[in-house]
């Protein structure tokens, strides 16, 4: 019995004891900062947004002051995301506001010991750029360039880029018909996985009314300037664009020496081409030139008169407004906005009356615009390099389209990281 108790006592002394456990209340350390992430509410200003975030009044004034040096706070838009970091006593640590898909405003406190030491910058977003190919088609349901591009999963700015490139060869308002197609290779940028903007169109192959037209982007190694050329290295740029209107309008009245006037009810010459188009549609200069006049012209309404090299003059009538800086003596570039469609003067509806003079005589602009020689070709010394680049782009376009030819998405976009 004594031995048993002795053994039990020995076991009790040598058994490991459990570690002590503290069951007191948890210690909660107070937060030093607060992070606010939200969208700019309607009618908010930078001042009101910062005050509503409980920043100290003087720091709100300081923040708006430094921001004005790099960004106009009046351009802040409702619905744009922002992020604010503040201390619990109302000191601004950091503020970021998304201006657009390319840039953001950042205001930071650069010295923690001096809350008023703020710095503001407008910074670009880091983007992921991909090379993308699409195959768009004109059909009964998608009978315009914009509609075909949208059906292929892209948006209007890409269609506008194509119109700029092929504007000297194709009148996208009148020449498209079911069966036409567009294969396009272009750059597309993303920020945080979301589409940001389009980059350059690298190459395109269009089939319009049985004609195949190709364009490839080529950068001159001597000047660093990029331009578009056909498959043989001839410039896509023409003296005239095919039309002063890019999309949507229709020809409502052609050039005629004797046309029944819809308002005067008599036969008289109509020395231009009428394009019916929605009110406010963009009207662009068909060629580079100098503004001879821009103002009201009686029956012609608001009119822009341009003079171009080679004895050519163009007239744009019935405008609702003029483009910025379009006044007598101003130089304009081909494709520059010079006004918008209207119905000023003698007009029964919104339209553009476009006229062309050659050596002082009005001529039918349609055949003149259609019979243009190609522009300057790539220099012979660069032609071999251009053809190599052309073949690479064609191969990449084919590969990109084939890679995404899945049964469930026959016209989907294929993206290949650059």
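-> sequence recovered:
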């Amino acid at each position: 019995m004594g031995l048993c108790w002795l053994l039990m006592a020995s076991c009790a002394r040598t058994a490991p004891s459990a570690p002590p456990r503290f069951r007191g209340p948890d210690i909660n350390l107070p937060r030093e900062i607060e992070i606010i992430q939200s969208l700019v509410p309607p009618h908010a200003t930078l001042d009101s947004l910062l005050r509503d975030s409980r920043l100290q009044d003087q720091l709100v004034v300081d923040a708006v002051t430094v921001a004005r040096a790099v960004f106009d706070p009046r351009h802040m838009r409702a619905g744009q995301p922002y992020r604010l970091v503040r201390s619990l006593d109302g000191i601004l640590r950091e503020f970021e506001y998304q201006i657009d898909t390319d840039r953001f405003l950042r205001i930071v406190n650069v010295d923690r010991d001096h809350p008023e030491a703020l710095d503001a910058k407008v910074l670009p977003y880091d983007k992921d750029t991909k090379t993308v190919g699409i195959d768009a088609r004109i059909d009964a349901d998608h009978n315009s360039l914009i509609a075909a591009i949208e059906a292929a999963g892209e948006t209007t700015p890409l269609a506008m880029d194509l119109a700029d490139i092929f504007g000297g060869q194709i009148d996208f308002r009148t020449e498209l018909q079911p069966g036409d197609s567009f294969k396009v290779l272009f750059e597309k940028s993303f920020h945080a996985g979301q589409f940001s903007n389009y980059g350059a169109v690298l190459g395109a192959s269009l089939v319009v009314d049985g004609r195949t037209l190709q364009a490839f982007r080529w950068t001159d190694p001597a000047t660093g300037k990029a331009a578009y050329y056909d498959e043989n290295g001839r410039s896509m740029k023409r003296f005239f664009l095919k039309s002063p209107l890019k999309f949507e309008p229709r020809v409502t009245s052609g050039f005629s020496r004797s046309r029944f006037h819809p308002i005067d009810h008599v036969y008289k010459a109509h020395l231009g081409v009428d394009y019916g188009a929605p009110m406010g549609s963009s009207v662009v200069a068909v060629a580079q030139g100098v503004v001879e006049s821009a103002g009201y012209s009686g029956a012609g309404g608001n009119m822009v008169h341009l003079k171009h090299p080679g004895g050519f003059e163009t007239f744009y009538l019935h405008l609702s407004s003029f483009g910025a800086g379009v006044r007598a003596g101003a130089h304009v570039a081909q494709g520059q906005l010079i006004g918008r469609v209207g119905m000023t003067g003698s007009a029964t509806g919104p339209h553009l009356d476009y006229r062309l003079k050659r050596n002082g005589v009005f001529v039918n602009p349609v055949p003149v615009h259609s019979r243009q020689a190609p522009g300057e070709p790539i220099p012979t010394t660069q032609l071999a390099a251009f053809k190599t680049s052309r073949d690479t782009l064609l191969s990449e376009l084919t590969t990109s389209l084939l890679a995404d030819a899945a049964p469930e998405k026959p016209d989907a976009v294929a993206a290949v990281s650059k």
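The longest strand covers residues 194-208.
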